[in-house]
Amino acid sequence: MLNQGRIIALTVGGVGVFLCLGLFAATSFTKQEKRTVKVTYYDTNRMPDGTYRHRGTRIRYKDVIAGEFKEIIYDPEHKETSYTLYCKQGMFVAKNNGSGLIEPLDDFVPAKPAERIEETHSKYAIGRASILGYNAYVRKTSDGLTEIWSVPELGSTLPLKMVLYSKGSDAYTVSEAVAVEWVTLPSDFFQVPSNLKIDLSGLERRIQIAEENNYGVLVEKHRKQLARWKALQTEK
How is residue 2 annotated by DSSP? Predict the structure, then answer.
């Protein structure tokens, strides 16, 4: 049986049929030798009674140079449920619920060079492990509840394994890579699909809450995001 695991910021999303509708329709491809990687994860829960439950699978596509990625989430029956898109336009989540909406969550942060990641990961590593032919650094979060297996050349947002332990329980969740492939994708793969409407209602609520609590810096940040994503919606 696979080691059990799960993901952290990754579970921020998944992907649905929107991927098929907007992204795979493109026909222009860009040469991306050793640049874009596809990682398939198998997610499992270890229950308090010692039994295991398959949570589903995820596929994450990532441009390891730019740091952009798209992660598709599948349920145990392999039905697409949602996806997260992390691109230069921002971080977005779209659910496969027929709404035709994609929600912005945060700004895009450019990827760190692999050398810098190597330096940071080696400094805080508690061990090394081989996963699918890659040498991974094993690290733990400060609370000791999460173990992360990371490979510098794949970037910090593409761990090959994560284990999340439940405090005070024998239960834990594992997300483990079962396949790593280098692929070529359509040139617009890491862009917000033109057929989806950007849902700004959540951001507008965050602005209201920040204003009510006098979080001036946060209000300014969210207002800049609102203006940028409104402009993106107009362009689409």
Answer: P
Q: What are the residue boundaries of the structural domains of the chain, listed by start? A: 9-198, 200-236
Structural contact between residues 203 and 91, judged by C-beta atoms closer than 8 angstroms: no
- Other CB atoms within a 10 A radius of the CB of residue 129 amount to 13
Query: What is the rounded average pLDDT of the residues 169-184?
Result: 94
- pTM of structure: 0.79
User: What pLDDT, on a 0 to 100 scale, did the predictor assign at position 62?
Assistant: 95
CA distance 113 to 62: 15
Helix H or strand E encompassing 195: none
For residue 54, CA distances in Å to 9, 11, 42, 47, 227 come to 19, 15, 8, 11, 41
Contact 19, 192 (CB under 8 A): no
Chain-centre distance for alpha carbon 90: 12
Amino acid in position 220:
E
Phi, psi (deg, nearest 5) at residue 183:
-130, 165
Cα–Cα distance list, 194 to 18, 159, 198 (Å): 10, 30, 10
Q: Which residue has the tokens 């049929």?
A: 17
Top CATH class of 9-198 equals mainly beta
Q: Which amino acid is at 157?
A: T
Give the integer Cα–Cα distance in Å for 49 and 186. Answer: 45
Q: Is the dihedral of CA 210, 230, 82, 155 positive or negative?
A: negative
Q: Coil, strand or helix: which one is 42?
A: strand
For the segment 191-227, what is each residue's pLDDT rounded down to a tens digit?
Answer: 999 999 999 999 999 999 999 999 999 999 999 999 9
